[in-house]
Amino acid sequence: MKIIERIKSSLGLVSGDLRIEPPDLVTLFGEKGVIVSRILVCDSVDYSVRDFNESSARKYVETFASILDKLPVNSEVRIVKDEVDLKWFARRLVNEILNTRVKLEGSQDEHSRVKHRVKLEVLSKLYEALLKGEPFTSTVLLVKIRVFARSVEEARSLLEYHESAVSRVFKTYYGLTLRRASKSELVRILRLDLNLEAFNNIQPVVSESRRLGFIHPFPPEKKSVFTDGVFLGVDLRDNRPVQIPVEQLYKHMVVIGPTGRGKTALLASLIESASVFDELKTLSIDFKGDLAKYLPQGLTRVLTPEDVVVNLAHKPRWLSDADWRMIVVDSLSTSLNTDPGRVLEALELVEGSGITALLHRGEGSVLLPLFELFNRPPRYELLESIHKENVLLQLQGRSILFQNVYAGIVIGVLRNGLSRREGFSNLLVIDEAWRVSRLRSLVELVKEGRSWRVGVVIATQNPGDVPREILENASNLVFFGSLDADYVEKVVKSTGVGAEYAQRIMKLGIGEALYVNTEEAAPVLLRVKTPMGLNSS
């Protein structure tokens, strides 16, 4: 390899003394010992000096000093800046827009046309943000740990210790994940150090250059901005597009805000953006009918309780008796706010005596308000394959109790089936989620869904509506504004963003929200993307 030979020549090393052994660079000095450098590359993070107060600034300075203390002599932490060709970026974006328009015009079915219209709108928003912005910049954060030892084995033992200590500090204080550099990245770094080329071989991820006050490293393997992200809206501070990778959806999202602030619009935009990805299927539960108004016709298949008829006394054929019993008891006890044991006794009474048990005094009467869910022949055919297409479950026009129990049954059946299905990624979206947020089935979906590539997005009015287990397992939190001091206090406590954001939350207007990724260090104030259905109304 020419680069190795050039380094050897410059250092006066003999052949074979310098090796690239990812994630390490190894230099042998014979009997004198060995120097091994381990290169770590950070994943995405974004925090701004604009948001510093005296306390947070001191924390970062002290943390950085702590990192330096833990690194051996001659180690380094560096941020590499690379200018992005704005003309290239704009040209690529325009080409993507033109290609999408061609696909839209050539689409034969309504579902494909709607998908392409959604993608075209997202691309147009990105182009609009590009026209308003300044030159874009890509940055990467590198950590190089160097140790001198008598042997390679001894050096790597020391490196394991230092890597663990430094990675723990970065993760704890910065929310920053370090990963080991690949062979190709080590070569690029060496070429950069020898002035052979700029560090511009990685796939660029763009950010406005006025955000250079941010330490803003990006993962080199991140995919194209056009296809990798779900578009949430634009940053209120600099109008840059705010996207989250599809993989983040499998780490769940909680959306909280008072009535009329924009929660449903955000959910509709998420469903629109998710529909662009063929492998990702959405199931949306719409209690009030608002989601259906915001989504373009043909984007999702609309189902009602008339299409999927539930009878609590008769299980779907693909479920065991035990699984069905747990799903029904979970839904009924949560919706009725009743002890599961009492619900189970009522169910057993109905199974033994028939639905007439609901009409008489006794344990069975607790289920009388749900007579309809025992009285009709079941139709479960569509329920078995509900995860294989984009579906909107419309429940408006029914009693609140019926809606809550029915939705609980669907979520329970979905949770039971998703753990065994293959070939699909799913997103469960629930508006007015306070109705079902304490379902055991939903909590289990949030806890386990990530391993099944299943994401849960729930929206509700108050932080107290969301169980602790769901909040702790959701990596994406969105809070709309409110003047209620108690609400703001709960937001600050839930996110850990710091009291300095309290005033900002109180000043947010309609359609504006605070987005926090708990794996990142910086919150984002954003204006939610207006869904297509609302644009056309």
From TrEMBL:
Keyword ATP-binding on entry: yes
InterPro entries: AAA+_ATPase, HerA_central, P-loop_NTPase, T4SS_component
Domain AAA+ ATPase span(s) in chain numbering: 249-489
Segments forming a coiled coil: none
Keywords: ATP-binding, Nucleotide-binding
Family matches, as SMART domains: AAA (SM00382)
GO molecular function: ATP binding
PANTHER family, sorted: SLR6007 PROTEIN, UNCHARACTERIZED PROTEIN YJGR-RELATED
Protein's name in the database: ATP-binding protein
Provenance organism: Thermosphaera chiliense
Lineage: Archaea, Thermoproteota, Thermoprotei, Desulfurococcales, Desulfurococcaceae
